[in-house]
Amino acid sequence: MVQLDPTWLDASAPWNVKARRAARHLTELRQEVDAFRSRRPFALTPEPTDTPGRLAYRLKFREPIPADLSAIVGDVLHNLRSALECVAYELAQRTRGAALTPTEERATTFPIRPTPESFEEFFTENKRRSTLFDARSRTALRRVQPFWLADQARELNIDLNDSVDRVAWDELTRLDALWNIDKHRRLTVTAWWPEIIYWGSNGESQRKAYRGDGTVADGSILLYVDGTDEGQGDELSYEFNLTLTDDPARHANPNAGQDVVQLLGSWHSRIVNWVFPTIYTALASAPTR
């Protein structure tokens, strides 16, 4: 059995403190989003069309998304990314066995690289990193990179043979991209995205839905509906997710619209329950040289 170093689990360790702070911001975000959503800031209303029996459902945003929500998102992103940075700093200190110089401190960061080649370049593009991260540290960091699954598949002689852009969908890739936007450029952009739209009927529905104008903006025709159901009105039931438009996964799949609270919650869980334990286990089992 692998014996983990218990100091990594210390509640007062910077990476654990940062992870807890991210969780608190997540709670605040959930409360603020729920309060905003409860005001029903969007509506989907039917309008007649030139086609008999067909209704157009127009999307209307009654209230803009508060900018403060994006600021809270940034707080979550910052603390999650900072938790990773603290782990990298600790790895460097343990490798050196002494306090780092200011120059060495600036060289420490948690690498998030898309390929094995770029991961290795991380340690050569700054010559100090070659002495700040020993073999165990590099092994541990490699096991949580965006290409980790491809690495494992190669080790087991498994052909993934699919077209999924695993790097674009990787949680750390997405966290890093959004963190850089929030840190250096602007607030992360949020937008509403349809989660579910449905209607009720007293039997098999006679209504059929068709795609609208293909946009999700104030004034968009979200969908058309043909037909009616006896005893039922024209109103639809619907819910929208508040999403992050800067999420790299949205570029890989424009229809990816996971709710921001669920999304960031899954990233927090991924880091605390997979990234950290994977690193700790690798450090305990990997050779030092």
TrEMBL record:
<protein>
    <submittedName>
        <fullName>Uncharacterized protein</fullName>
    </submittedName>
</protein>
